[in-house]
Design brief:
Layout: E1 7-18, E2 21-32, E3 36-40, H1 47-55, E4 62-67, E5 70-71, E6 82-85, H2 97-107, H3 112-125, H4 141-153, E7 159-163, H5 171-188, E8 191-196, H6 199-205, E9 208-213, E10 216-221, H7 223-228, H8 233-238, E11 243-251, E12 256-259, E13 264-266, E14 268-269, E15 277-282, E16 288-289, E17 298-309, E18 316-321, E19 327-331, E20 346-352, E21 357-360
Parallel strand pairs: 3-8, 3-9, 6-7, 7-8, 14-21
Antiparallel strand pairs: 1-2, 1-4, 4-5, 9-10, 11-12, 11-15, 12-13, 15-21, 16-20, 17-18, 17-20, 18-19
Length: about 350
């Protein structure tokens, strides 16, 4: 998706400290109009602190925060063109669906006819037409989610902030809601800023993802490029699965490294570094089982299957490099070609040179 260069949100040198602890460390980024922008990171990395500063519930220690070009420094939360959807949704149980969505409009003093028209139109957009008179207790988890989002969208914010809104849902509903949220954001066109520690949520729904670690952004990119070309070892380890092996550089240009058990591997350097001690990252799905002898530019491994982790289309093998304790996780192709593989079997695996990516050792 291409966005016009029209940022809804601009963050300039934003910083937040609590006593001696730096929660958000000098961030600079912008979010384009109509974008689904996710911030992905582990608990305690500063995601929610950043969101609360944007919403106006926390004052920055330094830096500037602009929404549609206007400095928000002295603008209170209720005057900012943003709305926040919490994980617990905070719906009013004593009100029906219509009343929940209309709550903010009534506070603005709109006429009943205008409120009815706006709520009805939004219920249709979130695929809840005819649900206005239902009580909150009558709704499923996914329907409550849509009501909470509708209540925020009815005030026509420039930016909708979502703080891990799927965290309280069961796994199946969470998978369903990921798709629904993505479609909903595309339908309404409002800019979404989504906070999550779940990489699947961020990759499935987002146009852009910022990976956050210890108060800083390690990388901002499209989901596809983020997964395929992690800029740092943290991103490579946090986004997706990786086999990680400590290696030592034995030759540069082209790069050749040696594992702790003595095997030489052709690899690529993911980031500029002159360090000799590196970590080698290999995605489970980039490992080719029983590659033909004619296939070139791959590193070959003799392996013994130790376990099979059956999970339907996501089934994996756990295997060790022969005569070592080096363990590799291998994604099993979805066809039946390797269905005969069993525990204890000896197999050969290959990894293309450019799928062996090295980073400075952490």
């Amino acid at each position: 998706m291409n966005f016009m260069n029209n940022p809804v949100l601009e963050i300039k040198n934003l910083r937040k400290t609590f006593s001696n602890f730096v929660a958000v460390d000098t961030l600079n980024f912008q979010v384009e109009d109509g974008c689904f922008f996710s911030i992905l990171g582990p608990s305690g990395c500063g995601k929610t602190t950043l969101l609360r500063m944007i919403a106006g519930f926390l004052a920055p220690s330094a830096g500037q925060l602009l929404i549609r070009g206007e400095d928000m420094t002295s603008v209170p939360p209720n005057r900012r063109p943003v709305n926040l959807v919490f994980q617990n949704l905070a719906l009013f149980p004593m009100m029906n669906v219509h009343e929940n969505i209309a709550f903010g409009l009534k506070r603005q003093g709109l006429k009943s006819s205008e409120i009815k028209q706006k709520v009805g139109a939004l219920l249709e957009r979130v695929h809840l037409s005819g649900y206005g008179k239902k009580s909150i207790s009558q709704l499923s988890g996914g329907q409550k989610q849509r009501v909470a989002i509708a209540r925020s969208l009815v005030l026509e914010p420039s930016l909708l902030l979502l703080d891990e809104p799927l965290g309280a849902l069961d796994l199946k509903l969470r998978e369903q809601m990921k798709i629904e949220l993505k479609k909903l954001q595309a339908d309404v066109g409002t800019t979404f800023m989504y906070i999550t520690h779940d990489q699947s949520e961020a990759l499935v729904m987002s146009d852009r993802v910022a990976v956050m670690n210890e108060g800083r952004f390690e990388q901002i990119d499209t989901p596809r490029h983020l997964y395929s070309n992690p800029a740092t070892s943290f991103v490579a380890g946090f986004v997706g699965e990786s086999n990680i092996m400590p290696v030592t550089v034995t030759k540069r240009d082209p790069l050749k490294v040696t594992t702790s058990y003595g095997q030489q591997i052709h690899a690529t350097m993911a980031t500029q570094s002159e360090e000799k001690e590196l970590d080698l990252y290999v995605r489970p799905e980039s490992i080719i089982l029983n590659p033909p002898e004619t296939l070139g530019d791959i590193n070959r491994f003799a392996l013994t299957v130790r376990n099979i982790l059956f999970d339907g289309s996501n089934t994996k093998l756990l295997a060790t490099v022969d005569h070592t304790d080096c363990e590799l996780t291998i994604a099993l192709p979805q066809n039946q070609q390797f269905a005969h593989i069993d525990k204890g079997d000896s197999i050969t695996a290959g990894v293309p040179f450019d799928s062996c990516r090295c980073y400075p050792r952490r």
